[in-house]
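QA checklist item 7 of 12: single-chain prediction sanity check.
[x] sequence parsed
[x] length recorded as 238
[x] structure emitted
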Amino acid sequence: MSSIKSVYLCGVHVSNHTCREIEQTIGGFLQGAEARHIVTVNPEFLYRSVHDPIFREVLNTADLQVIDGFGVTCAFLWHGQRAQCRMTGVELMWQLLDHADRKNLSVFLAANAFGLTLWQDMQDVIQLRYPHIRISGANIDPQKPHIDADTKADIVLCNFGAPYQELFLHELKKRHACKVGIGVGGAFDFASGRIVRAPKWMRMCGCEWLWRLIRQPKRWRRIVRAVIVFPIYVVLGK
């Protein structure tokens, strides 16, 4: 991998990888023997990192950081650097599943037991596209996460949302329960159709937050933190 520049945002050193470097790095992780943790760094994560030192440490010690969110690309510009690749959890999830299909890898789906999409629902969605992937999973309480001690898979996809998914995957990494673990947030709900994603033009111009606010007004606090408070933190150099 080439020399990667990073930007210090809200206590986190956020790396600036190209899309090709991300894909190559993931491929290397899946061929290796070590457990790896991938994080998608978005404004909500960085806002939380200011107030949660444990979560901040998890982000800083992840094996691969991927920029997710228009606000983070703007923060890079504020620091005089152009973000080379912005990739969402949904896009990374399908990239990992494509690897799993081509390399005959196993996948474990750690689904929020109280969420809209359970692991069995997501299994059905994946197998429509990749019928031969070996899939297992569990519906888990994010606040009291537990899976069998002998559970192992090449790839773990977790949709608990922050901070629970990252803390859960950080512990799985310590147990060497997978080759690659990644938190995918709302990706299960988007893939299953439980939640309709914003049109592409809104995502490209950084207005997805408005779509989410209209369709899910209960998210207003999270949106305020990401759209208003996070930019203030960036300007103040927190």
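[x] summary fact logged: Residues 220-236 form the longest helix (17 residues).
[ ] second reviewer sign-off
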